[in-house]
Amino acid sequence: MQHRSVRDKEQAYKDLVRGRKRGFVAFVLRMLLRLASLPYSLVVRIRNLTFDLGLRKPFRSAVPVISIGNVTVGGTGKTPIVEMIARWCRKEELRVTILSRGYGASDGPNDEALLLEENLPDVPHLQGAKRAELAKIAVEELESEVLILDDGMQHRQLARDVEISLIDATDPFGGGWLLPGGLLREPTSSLRRANVIVITRINAVLPEVVAPIQSRLKRIAPQTPIITTKFVPTQFLREGEPAIPVAELRGKRVVSFCGIGNPDSFEKMIESLGANVADRRTFPDHYSYERKDVVDLAAWIRQSAPDVVLTTQKDAVKLRLSSIGDVPLWALRIETVIEQGESILDELLREGLSTRGHSAR
Hints:
Elements (H helix, E strand, L loop, with lengths): L1 H16 L6 H29 L12 E6 L7 H14 L4 E5 L10 H9 L5 E3 L3 H10 L5 E5 L11 E7 L27 E5 L6 H14 L5 E13 L2 E5 L7 E6 L4 H10 L3 E7 L8 H14 L3 E5 H7 L3 E2 L2 E14 L1 H13 L7
Helix pairs in contact: 4-9
């Protein structure tokens, strides 16, 4: 299948740049990719310098902007963090709109927009490449009081009042090299622009792994506070039926599939719930499922004979199926839990809004 070859190539590339592939050929390829990182790095640094020196002026919205982004390629958990920040704004009775690029979208909202629409029905979500224009629409037509810029760290054309940068505990620094020699979108020194660094998925690694990440971040950005978070499974969703508790999964024979940036984190979460995982499939991030994919999945499921099929909520909102074949399809819903630093984030958000005259209530 085409999607398998795409995913296999993605994984092979990641294994190569992370140094997991050994041998002379792998070494030579890795060195060539790192050489190719140099011109990319130069372009990124020059671009950032033009903004830092004021040679390029970002558009400043009439209302505060909260940017949520990261310095690496792949899934760092932006969507659940965006949801958490949007819920904070709604709790403070602020009208908030989410602005995003809309990666993977063709005819309509992408998977992240569909997911956020399902979990945050009272929060508008605008997608498009020109987010400064989206900001004007959000303020003038939707009367928004706060804007959340999703995946905004590299989108410096829109000024922000609060910069939140995410670091995934399972792969914090992307191999240490910029694209294509590593998985960094820009140098780790860019983290100094952030008002706060949020380490995600700390429950997906051993406790002794987190401390070195924090130490390195403190060396990179000594003045920037660090918050630690984890993503916790809260319930299972099935199209057209009430949600059920995650405890229902224990002991069941399951197969799973997903098309997200960090599929391993999803599999580990399933295993932590006590399921008997018979098989798994992965698709490229933002994958658009077609009828032939569902037919192929149904044949695969019949061979595995599971009690239930599991996927992510991000995948389920695109499929809108209650079953595949004769087997129930459950989607795992997760929420963000702040382990350390909740008061830091709360204070930071309130300060960021108050500087523009939009104090939280």
